[in-house]
Amino acid sequence: MSNSILLSPLKSKHLDLSNRIAMAPLTRCRAKDNLVGEMQVQYYSMRADAGLIITEGAPVSSEAIGYPDIPGIYTRQQVEAWKKVTDAVHQKNGKIFVQLWHVGRISHPVFLNGQLPLAPSAIQSSTLARTKNGKLPRPIPKAMSFEEIQKTVKDFAQAAENAVEAGFDGVEIHGANGYLINQFLCDGSNKRTDEYGGDIPSRCRFAMEIIRAVTETIGTSKTGIRLSPGGIGNDIYDSDPKSLFGYLIKELDLMDLAYLHLLEPYQDLSHLPNTVQSIAKHFRSMYQGTLMINNGFQMASAEQILQEGFADLVSFGKLFISNPDLVNRFRINAPLNAWDEDTFYSEGPKGYIDYPIFESNS
Ligand SMILES: Cc1cc2nc3c(=O)[nH]c(=O)nc-3n(C[C@H](O)[C@H](O)[C@H](O)COP(=O)(O)O)c2cc1C
User: Fold this and answer.
1) 70 CA: nearest ligand 1 atom
2) Which of 12, 95, 283, 337 supports an S-S bond with 322, CB 3.0-4.6 Å?
3) Class of domain 10-343
């Protein structure tokens, strides 16, 4: 497809990418002892043709963990381990950002040495925790103290510094999908009466403090953020997401970030108040910088949204799980491998580094 926008380079103020296809962040639960190893080196380097790889969520501290075997970015050993991944991707001229993650209440004491998960308020998520001992109900989390909030902001900044040391081209702050930052944003999970709760600017304070701390540490050019204004997963709820995310995205527009990564909703939201069903279309006019869009895209729909100017980059998740050579398959219009949900979070190489590369017989 010679006239493909998706396959054309993106040169923005902060990004210089060989195409507009990003690999979406994908937790795969295969990092033993919270460390990446040889399997992850192979997995990411096989996908280095993506204009930009965003890694699986990487917890910024031991308190930020909410799933088994996810790779951290808070110890020296973790930084050294990630260097092998970034080197391998760079050797293939790829670009790679790490996603900085704190799950907040979407955790369980089994991941936290018996401690309670942290959250803006002591409000439980009704979802179940996926642990090595099966699915477990979540406890009521601990409402964070002012000191715990300040420490967490510092943890994000330190993780960003670690990321640059590990060779990453930048970081994506995970503000989406019902995790800690999203919990602070939304009034269903944030009932605080101090400066981190209440009206919209106050609920956005935690996110903005993290963004400022990260950008002051590694620069705006290396900092992206992911938001899900239409997300209701992980039991997240806001009474007026249209106003909340309208405010936040306009604030982010002033920050000169590498990119803003938005998710379209997973479902029809029309039964809920003040929601936005078409995220890119609604928020594009509020954001002048580089906008990445995700959720459910195929090549044709990705081309269309870029063509219409509602986004500058499209990220693909599940298609990258099953098609390490997704960019080439798009280029030559090759058939795509189907993904196997049973191996999304399983152990070992199956469903991870054994999906076949397309080989043409002609
Ligand atoms: C196995 C799996 C793991 C995921 N892990 C993350 C993650 O670590 N961080 C994140 O922001 N989103 C995560 N997501 C969401 C994806 O980034 C993406 O938003 C979702 O798969 C929809 O895009 P797609 O239709 O292209 O797959 C995950 C999704 C899947 C299927």
Assistant:
1) 8
2) 337
3) alpha beta
